Amino acid sequence: MTTIVLADDHPLVRQGLRAVLEASDDLTVVGEAADGRAAVRLCLDLRPDVVLMDLQMPELKGLDATAELASAGSATKVVVLTMFDDDDTVFAAVRAGAVGYLLKGADGADIVAAVRAAAAGQAVFGTALARRLQAWFRAGPYRPERAFPSLSEREREILDGVAAGLSNPEIGARLFLSPKTVANNVSAILDKLHLASRAEAIVAARDAGLGG
Q1: What's the rounded Cα separation, in Å, for the pair 121 and 131?
Q2: Could you give the dihedral angle defined by the CA atoms of residues 165, 45, 19 and 66, in that order, rounded to the nearest 10 degrees?
Q3: Quick one: pLDDT at residue 144?
Q4: Residue 166 pLDDT level (bands cut at 50, 70, 90)
Q5: Which residues neighbour 80 within 8 Å (Cβ) at sequence distance 6 or greater?
Q6: Strands of 100-103's sheet, edge to edge?
Q7: What is the per-residue pLDDT across 77-112, written as a single tens digit (0 to 9) for each?
């Protein structure tokens, strides 16, 4: 049985998705979240196989929720289900850790197939989105010679640990620093890079090639 969490701020959308998914004997919805923060909490508590994640939600956007799950080491596979199909949003979702990306309006059979494929460890994208991703990876993303020139070498090392999903104590153990020193540096990094959260820092750092 594949377990699923639905994350969307519209009750009717969640109701429709539940009906579509639970019409299949091998799929069951174990939780629903109306905002990104609740989605993260449910996924960490219930450990579903898949979460269908909307991107525009209150409290915490779906992109940040996806990054937080990746940072926490969650095994739940994130499949984005959204109205947005621009390249920046698609690529940002993939960088944050999503394994699938579907547009709202996809028929029920496609959604069911995507959930099953994600649970089996496969990447899931519509045909048009898959072609764009393939073209982007073939061309190779642009990388500056040195990302984040405003950061010190120590701050870059800490940001690399953040991008790798390490906690402050884990980064401190790696760099022989106290967790408090790491926390102070993370705050400085967010300020220098004009980022609002650790999740945003993870996305930006991974985009720049850190955390590998």
Answers
A1: 20
A2: -20
A3: 45
A4: very high
A5: 53, 54, 55, 62, 66, 93, 98, 100, 101, 102
A6: 27-33, 2-7, 50-53, 77-82, 100-103, 124-125
A7: 999 998 887 777 888 888 889 999 998 888 899 999
Distance of CA 93 to the CA centre of its chain: 6
CA geometry: angle 34, 95, 13, nearest 5 deg: 25
**Rounded (10°) angle between helices 62-71 and 87-96:** 20
pLDDT at 197: 93
What is the structure's pLDDT at 146? 63
Q: Give the percent of the chain with pLDDT over 70.
A: 90
Tell me how far the alpha carbon of residue 25 is from its chain's centroid.
Answer: 28
Each residue of 11-47: b (16+ CB within 10 Å) or e?
Answer: eeebeebbebbeeeeebebebbbbbbbbbbebbeeee
Domains of the chain: 2-139 (3.40.50.2300), 153-207 (1.10.10.10)
| Residue predicted with more confidence, 139 or 83 | 83
What contacts 163, CB < 8 A, 6 or more positions away?
Answer: 201, 202, 205, 206, 210, 211
What are the structure tokens assigned to 103, written together? 């547009």
Q: CA–CA separation, 79 vs 102, rounded Å?
A: 7
- How many CB atoms sit inside 10 A of residue 205's CB? 24
Q: Does the pLDDT at position 54 exceed 70?
A: yes
- Coil, helix or strand for 159? helix
Q: Are 162 and 170 in contact (CB under 8 A)?
A: no
